[in-house]
TrEMBL record:
UniProt organism field: Methylacidimicrobium cyclopophantes
Pathway this chain belongs to: Cofactor biosynthesis; NAD(+) biosynthesis; quinolinate from iminoaspartate: step 1/1
GO function terms (MF aspect): 4 iron, 4 sulfur cluster binding; metal ion binding; quinolinate synthetase A activity
Higher taxonomy: Bacteria, Pseudomonadati, Verrucomicrobiota, Methylacidimicrobium
Keyword Cytoplasm attached: yes
Keywords recorded for this protein, A-Z: 4Fe-4S, Cytoplasm, Iron, Iron-sulfur, Metal-binding, Pyridine nucleotide biosynthesis, Transferase
Listed EC numbers: 2.5.1.72
Cofactor note: Binds 1 [4Fe-4S] cluster per subunit.
Designated name of the protein: Quinolinate synthase
Family: Belongs to the quinolinate synthase family. Type 2 subfamily.
Amino acid sequence: MEASQFQEEILRLKKERNAVILAHNYQLREIQEIADYVGDSLGLAYQANRTGADWIVFCGVHFMAETAKILNPEKKVLLPDLEAGCSLADSCSAEELAEARRASDRLFVVTYVNSTASVKALSDVICTSSNAVAIVNRIPSEYEILFVPDQNLGEWVRQQTGRKIRLWEGRCYVHVEFTHASLSRMRQLHPGAPIVAHPECDAAVRMLADEICSTEKMVGFCRKSPAESFIIATEAGMLHRLRREIPEKEFLPAPTERCACANCLFMKKITLEKVYRSLQSGEPEVVVPREIAERARIPIERMLDWSTN
Ligand code: CIZ
Ligand code: SF4
């Protein structure tokens, strides 16, 4: 079948199954086109929380589908390819975090949503890059904050909030491919284009950026800015979202140093064919053990509660 036929079939099956398709900003263009909602993990968590659908087909990575399942234990949550993981999430294991918790009883663990359900279950509050600053600002000052697992995001939050924060040593393998040198070359070629970078980028890249924000906030920033073109330093799928929502402006992918691509291999595991097969078969389903889901739900709900989004 061709892409457009898959898309038609997906839309037909989606109605039949009373399914909702949620797609992350880093998904392939053809996936974003058939989604009911395209957004960042915070937006997707809100959508998952309020959907009336029986099935949630999650086009993103495993930890995002887990979050949807934790918020909707009675719904079927499908992830069209269970291999769509996240190396950043895998950089912090529940065992390591449990050990850090045992070492201090004043610890307040802020966990980036890019983490496994068992790590969330050991956390005090979850955050995304959209709300991380607002969340950290709400933590009472007597606590010692540990931010896991993204070191770059944690460091940026530390700068923004002025809070003392201990950082975990995890990084997103895609975002660290942007370098100061690759961005500087791009800036010379397009001197009028603001650099918009994700906080998962290294400090040297963030230093060059005109705006540092989550993917969702990138949409608002580029819409409001008087500039006509922008250099975007995040996963390449975001370019589709920006071009679709703001067609009158130009979006230039920030170059990476080695591979000249910023595609996350985990995000790109989701294809139209796999979405179609999931809707047909009702598989593969994401399951979270009940005891972990119940504990993980508390810091996720605290995030939704504390978030200003
Ligand atoms: O929080 C998300 O969805 C991610 C992974 C990126 C972002 O900043 O939107
Ligand atoms: Fe994980 Fe980075 Fe891929 Fe996002 S872009 S899913 S953080 S590896």
